[in-house]
Amino acid sequence: MSQEIFAVLMIAALLWPLVLVLRQPLMTALTARGEVRFPLDSLWATAPLPALLLALLEADGSLSLSAWLLGGVWVLDEPRRVLLAFTALLWLLSGWYARGYLAGERDRANAGNGAAASRLARFALLWPLTLSGNLLLLVAEDIASFYLGFAVMTFAAYGLVIHSGTRDALIGGRAYLIMAVLGEGLILGGLLWSVGALGTLTLSGLREGLGNLEHGVWIGVLLWLGFGVKAGVAGLHIWLPLAHPVAPTPASAVLSGAMIKAGLVGWMATLPLGESAASAFADLGRAMLVVGLVGAIGAALLGVCQRHPKAVLAYSSVSQLGMLAALVGTGLLAPALWPALAPAVVLFAAHHGLTKGVLFLGVGIGEHPPRLPAWMLALLLTLPALSLAGVLGSGLATKWAFKAALYEGDHSALVTWLSLAAVGTTLLMARTLWCQWQGEGQARRDGLVPLAAPMPLAWLLLVVSALTLPLWLPALGLAPAWPPREELFGLWWPVLLGVALALLVGWLTRGRPLRMAGRRLPAGDLWWPLSRGLSRLWVATGPWLVRLAAAKTAWVAWWVALEEAGISALDALGERETWLRRHAAVLMMVVAVGLALALLFSTA
């Protein structure tokens, strides 16, 4: 492919979503004039199509734009192409799914419901805007473009989280926004510090030079924690189980499947993974490894206590990203191992992105089942869950990819811990399916949706794409290896143990203790004691803050009065100066006469 065609495709991939953003105000104006149109039309759903085409054409290259910010550099190589492909595919099918999912709001808008029309217009505006930020950060090589894409994606997604406007949605949005601002501050601090110290404007320059900086480890800590907010690092994860259940289902799919991978992309783009000079980062790698495993196992224990399937899936995302964080930490701890781990991490990201998107969209399918036999729908809901647990498809290939790399690097203890986390993944998948099947019967009685409708069609296409991921990934340059037969039991035993535990707990308890635990461990876990503690602190310190505000007001008033007095004095001096200038000759004569008289009397 020629450089000219590559440049056109790259610009089209990044600009087309923004064109659709600009199209939305025009549609709103037409609606205000009486011509009611559904903003989520077929053209709107094509926002990620140029990006998907760019990824599938196997076009490696770079595009430099000197007039863009501090000098834009956009690159497409093998890892970026894989990330771009699954991200664009997930956004494409989730957007098509949204057209059916929000059809009820369209009907209410057409019936004259202004709130529904406003929500639809906002969703139609923010969806492609969020997508544009997600795509930009994936291909950006210059730091300014990368941060711009990350920030646009982060803050535009807030409007998707609070779409419904309910109390729970506003709480989830508040948690999301607070943690987003915290993460952005840490990222910006780390990037500015590294740019100032290294004098580089590219991510590759930052990554290669960070290991040689005197305070490079502290910059790495800022970047780990900042991107860790998006990736759901244990302790910084509290926004995920609050935001995902309240967001519209298609927004939950891209939040968990694509957007939280931005944290992983940030780690891979900025931390000195595989660099020989990064031995000083071993302690940071060890911390990432430990915290990642805590999140992988702890999130599973919290997730099985949830009652809403999307909350269970949110904790599953925290658990899966904890595994990825542990692998990245291992790459910092053992730089020589990173070249073997990097393809496994990219494969893991693609597998989790598509499969988790299928599972989130499947929640909406369970609420609005298509015209399929019950057994077939149950099978289609179960297969992605089995894949995420590592039984088949891309899940099995992913598990073998990173286990083979870890065995080669003599990290068998980490394999054991990740296997225990896989037991938790199996329990989470069993809990998700149980929560879905409890409501599926009533939803089936309410009516079935035609298979050709946007929701079932998009979901079925995503199911096929996720399950066949190992077959079409080689076309993008990443060919996953299948495990030998003698290794299958070592890969399957966590799933078998997880299924056995799920059946045993379900038979012994009939779900009652889980319901009690769900009431005691609500989604968001740490958010609630933190918010209560801060509320009590605010009440306790309120009177002191009022006094402080009063003192500040008095202090400001005193300075204002002093300033006004100073200005009056200066004005008076100015008036006197004017009078002196006007009578300068007379005054000089008076002074001269006075001096003469003084001399006269002194001689006398």
Can you describe what's shown?
With 604 residues, the chain is mainly α. The chain has helices spanning 3-32, 49-56, 78-101, 103-110, 114-139, 143-161, 167-198, 203-210, 216-231, 240-246, 249-259, 261-270, 282-303, 309-333, 338-367, 374-389, 393-408, 412-446, 454-467, 469-472, 488-509, 512-520, 527-582, 584-603, and strands at 61-65, 72-76. The chain is built from 24 helices and 2 strands. Strands 1-2 form a two-stranded antiparallel sheet. Strand 1 and strand 2 (72-76) form a beta hairpin. Helix 6 runs antiparallel to helix 11 (249-259) and helix 16 (374-389) runs antiparallel to helix 18.
How are the SSEs ordered, and which strands pair?
Layout: H1 3-32, H2 49-56, E1 61-65, E2 72-76, H3 78-101, H4 103-110, H5 114-139, H6 143-161, H7 167-198, H8 203-210, H9 216-231, H10 240-246, H11 249-259, H12 261-270, H13 282-303, H14 309-333, H15 338-367, H16 374-389, H17 393-408, H18 412-446, H19 454-467, H20 469-472, H21 488-509, H22 512-520, H23 527-582, H24 584-603
Antiparallel strand pairs: 1-2
Helix pairs in contact: 1-2, 1-5, 2-3, 3-5, 3-11, 3-15, 3-19, 4-5, 5-6, 6-7, 6-11, 7-9, 7-10, 9-12, 10-11, 10-14, 11-15, 12-14, 13-14, 13-18, 14-15, 14-18, 15-16, 15-17, 15-19, 16-17, 16-18, 16-19, 18-21
